[in-house]
């Protein structure tokens, strides 16, 4: 499918996009005000307080639920950089896969938010045992953000880079 919004041509890229030549950035840069605000927000989530492994597990499960090949492709790479194995990354797509309790909790957060738009009391209680208040807020916002981004990527038909 052709993109509904074409990425900016390279001669119009800002310094960030030149350093990160991905279609998600070159496409969203067509709305400069939102793009700059989104980069700050997305950057805050990527550089937040959550361990990188937890962050990437949550994003990958969200990408899986949303059917976002674009998010999956990019965050499978980032997941490997965060220490996830190829087997673990593929297991994110298997809802009945066995995981250590810490990983299972992160995946459960993404599952609960996908299926119910809320966390069960049991999931929330487990989050309270594992993360401080900042971490709990951040994990919920991370999953919500990547769900929103998947919708935008799909609707605008942003293509995965060659």
UniProtKB/TrEMBL annotation:
Q: Which residues form the Carboxymuconolactone decarboxylase-like domain?
A: 32-97
**Superkingdom assignment:** Bacteria
Read off the InterPro entries from this record. Answer: AhpD-like, CMD-like
- What Gene3D superfamilies does its record include? AhpD-like
Q: Which GO terms describe its molecular function?
A: peroxiredoxin activity
Pfam families, alphabetized = CMD
Name of the protein: Carboxymuconolactone decarboxylase family protein
Organism for this UniProt entry: Nonomuraea zeae
């Amino acid at each position: 499918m052709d993109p509904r919004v074409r990425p900016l041509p390279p001669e119009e890229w800002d310094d960030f996009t030149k350093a990160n030549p991905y279609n998600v950035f070159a496409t969203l840069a067509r709305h400069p005000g939102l793009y700059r605000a989104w980069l700050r927000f997305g950057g805050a989530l990527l550089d937040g307080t959550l361990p990188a492994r937890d962050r990437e597990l949550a994003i990958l499960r969200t990408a899986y639920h949303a059917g976002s090949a674009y998010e999956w492709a990019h965050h499978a790479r980032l997941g490997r950089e965060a220490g996830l194995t190829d087997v673990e990354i593929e297991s994110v797509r298997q809802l009945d896969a066995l995981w250590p309790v810490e990983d299972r909790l992160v995946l459960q957060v993404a599952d609960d938010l996908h299926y119910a738009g809320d966390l069960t009391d049991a999931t929330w209680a487990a989050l309270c045992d594992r993360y401080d208040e900042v971490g709990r807020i951040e994990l919920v916002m991370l999953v919500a953000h990547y769900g929103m981004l998947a919708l935008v990527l799909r609707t605008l038909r942003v293509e995965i880079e060659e």
